[in-house]
Amino acid sequence: MAPEEKTLSLGIDGGASTGLVPEIAARAGRAKEGRAIRALALRACSILAMIAVWWLLTFFFPPSLIPLPSATLSEVVSIMSSGQFLSEMGATLRRVGVGFAIAMLVAVPLGILMGTIKGLENFFESPVILGLTMPGLVWAVMAIMFFGLSETSAYAAVAVTIMPMLAISLWQGTKSIDKDLLDMSTAFHAGVWSKIVDVILPQLLSHILAAIRYGLGLAWKVVVVVEMFGFSNGVGYQVVRGFNIFSMKQVLAWAITFLIVMIVIEFGIIGWLESRVTRWRPKLEAWRR
Amino acid sequence: MAFVRVVNAVKYFPRENGSDMLVLDRVSFDTKEFGITCLLGPSGCGKSTLLNAISGLERLDDGKVEVVSHNGASRQEAKLGYVFQDARLLNWKSVEQNLIFALKGMRVPPAQWPVRLNKYLELVGLGEFRHQFPLYLSGGMRQRVGLARGLVIEPEVLLMDEPFSKLDQLTARRLREESLQICARLRQTTVMVTHDVEEAAYMGDRIVILRARPARIIEIYENPMAPGRRDVDSADFIEFKKQLLNTVLRLIGNHEEES
């Protein structure tokens, strides 16, 4: 193939993926590593900066209001190394997980149907938007009043809070599916299953992932509020317990523990899923200094 | 291989005011077996409708389309390959996986896949890029994938709908050359729609000129030059191109744009 075709195919990642001109690819690879290290370093710096500010504040406030970072962080370590952490965190995670699963089961078919059938779209548009506008905390309160202090109220609160978001995402995603690609798949006699798995689902995947991200953020908040109201386990419960004995250290320690787990889930699981799912898209990194 | 026989094709499009618009007016012709037949006409004259009728995507209101096999037997259905104007690749699948998608759809046994993939990817010059994703490729390369996909199923007839019109001039030129060589090498019966007179003269072994609204065959030309002997700058070629152009201009009038 002629040389100019090769340079045209040089991807935005510097051609490292096609391994064309070895020295350029190697240099681009090193530059990419350098950028990754710099990004990590900046993130670490910002966390250290936040801790530094916290430490400075301890000079101006009593330890009962602003506990020392060192004391709080050692409390975090002792929480995480104790069996308590697993049971408390596990309870909270379970509530989020089940609520999420219920929401997906309802929202995914609903969204897809809304995107395909005009009548259903018109009918469900109002309830979905109303559901979206209602604050998650209100759903939490209503769930507890309705189901009492049972696990069901936690599941219900989470499910109802994120259902509208997921439904809208799938609704819009379904509407924006490329008809030309479906025509192409018909031209090559692709079966219904192949059309769904090879053509439709991948287009919906990026919408679903974005919705899961937003949904997860909201779900955590709702669960913690429900737990605060009167469960006897869970992160929310531990925070309220800290409040009751007026231990800011306890409150902060559990909050930080919770944050750590959330970050692990966000970057570890969801971030990993996202990178797998968007491997085929050129990144804009090149001009995003 | 087979060729396509169109007999008295008639097609109406419903119009808002009730009366139907006649799009295809008793179009009849045979495509050339083992060669490229170009359907040449101004934009919007119904060429794409005709192609869709050949492929079965649209139903004719009268007349029929047959696929005549080598042994003379005629059928309604045939194994058809498509190349679209915009490549229409599945961007989340690699080049190779895109071809496999077509192989799967057409129920080609998996045992044959490796041989076919190698053959047709090499043929379009994308052997090195089989695991690359379409968005990392240039427009010309994507169109090559589209061509490979149409060919990999080894169709009886290959249908191409203005496959080079979205490319820049230089890329289009190169791709035309390569497609011509590939179709000649494979002796692939091809039907190609185009509105470009030079493209028709260059690629078509048989050129069917259609007028517009309604579409009717004006004339059918056989290309005097063999595929390997069409030099765009030669006197013969320019002469033939002029012939085509005059026919098109004379009978269609100057309210249609020519490219």
Overall helicity of chain B: 25-40%
* Number of strand segments of chain B: 10
Order of helices and strands of chain B: EEEHEEEHHHEHEHEEH
**CATH topology tier name of the domain at 1-78 and 190-259 in chain B:** Rossmann fold
Query: Over the alpha carbons, how many angstroms does the gyration radius of chain B reach?
Result: 18 Å
- The radius of gyration of chain A is 24 Å
- What is the terminal-to-terminal distance of chain B? 32 Å
What's the overall average pLDDT of chain A, rounded? 83
Strand content of chain B is: 25-35%
**CATH class group of the domain at 1-78 and 190-259 in chain B:** Alpha Beta
Number of β-strand runs of chain A: 0
CATH topology tier name of the largest domain in chain A: MetI-like fold
Q: What order do the SSEs of chain A take from the amino end to the carboxyl end, as H and E?
A: HHHHHHHHHHH
* CATH class descriptor of the largest domain in chain A: Mainly Alpha
| Spans of at least 5 consecutive residues with low confidence of chain A | 1-17
Strand count, sense and barrel status of the largest sheet of chain B are: 6 strands, mixed
Put simply, the count of helices of chain A is 11
